[in-house]
Amino acid sequence: MCSKRMQNCTKCSLFSPRFSFTSFRGYNIGIRLIDEFLVKTDLASCLHFQESAEVIAKVGLKMFLNLSAEVVGWSEESKTCTLRLPTANNPFIEFAEIPEKFAGLVYGNLLCGVIKGALEMVQISADCFYSSDPLRGDEFSEIQIVYKEFLIERVDLDL
């Protein structure tokens, strides 16, 4: 069954660094996982994107993956940052083996989808993608998060 899905993804050309089957799956996980995170941490709302990135790196990843990331590479306007994940004890590196025929698959995009989905549930629109991956020969495992906007809830009064 899984190989059939992978064949469909290959046909649909979803193996790109920005959008993939794995990030789509991660997004669905993230929109559900945020509830557990908010209940267990009882944190106040973050007022700035910088705070959100630090909470993801230090609290969220620690809670669910037992990893602590380092937030590096902030852009001048503080709308883009990079989460540098440790390469030791990282389940996205240690337990992943990508077959040759799926060499374009970025397995870590699952985590990017989780982050994107969770951020949207707390009203932050952002893009998230792997910028370097040891499974593809890079030295570090890094996720880039690009802040787009704070989302505003809208209520349609014409129901």
Describe the structure.
- This protein is of the alpha+beta class.
- The protein has one domain: Trafficking protein particle complex subunit 3 (Muramoyl-pentapeptide Carboxypeptidase, domain 2).
- It has five helices and four strands; from the N terminus they run H-H-H-E-E-H-H-E-E.
- It has helices spanning 2-11, 21-41, 49-65, 91-94, 109-121, and strands at residues 70-72, 80-85, 124-132, 141-150.
- A four-stranded antiparallel sheet has the order 1-2-4-3.
- Helix 2 packs across helix 5.
- The relative contact order is 0.18.
Descriptive keywords:
alpha+beta, 5 helices, 18% strand, globular, four-stranded antiparallel beta sheet, 159 residues, disordered N terminus, single chain, 4 strands
Q: How are the elements arranged and paired?
A:
Layout: H1 2-11, H2 21-41, H3 49-65, E1 70-72, E2 80-85, H4 91-94, H5 109-121, E3 124-132, E4 141-150
Helix pairs in contact: 2-5
Broad shape:
globular
Into which percent range does the helicity of residues fall? 40-55%
CATH class: Alpha Beta
| Total discrete domains | 1
Biggest beta sheet summary: 4 strands, antiparallel
Beta content:
15-25%
Biggest sheet strand order reads 1-2-4-3
Please work out how many helical segments DSSP would assign: 5
Measured between the Cα atoms of the first and last residue, the distance is 42 Å
